[in-house]
Amino acid sequence: MKTQICDYFEKVVTDYPESTRPHQLQRAIIQLQKVFGELQDARAMLGVSVALGLLKLYTEALVAIKRLSGNMTWQKGRCIR
């Protein structure tokens, strides 16, 4: 069983994204943005925003933040959720 887990890890996790598909990670993160937005998971959406920023996808990162902040209530510059 342990060998199967290691084989899976080596094939799937360490080879992601495939070198022939450099935008695979970008598409996966944007899909996560949709899912986490529907779940209204603020912490996960913040993580998505940071990941998009690290990929220099600043517009998409802002979309995640705007979607996140749209689900919150703000008072005197603070989120009171």
Give the overall shape. globular
Low-confidence stretches are: none
Distance from N terminus to C terminus (CA atoms, Å) equals 45 Å
**How much helix is in the residues?**
55-70%
Largest sheet: 2 strands, antiparallel
Oligomerization state? single chain
**Structural class designation:** mainly alpha
Number of domains: 1
By DSSP, the count of extended strands is: 2
Number of helices: 4
Strand percent estimate: under 5%
- Radius of gyration, in Å, reads 16 Å
- Biggest β-sheet: strands ordered side by side in the sheet: 1-2
- The H-and-E topology, N to C, reads as HHHHEE
Could you report the average pLDDT, rounded to the nearest whole number? 76
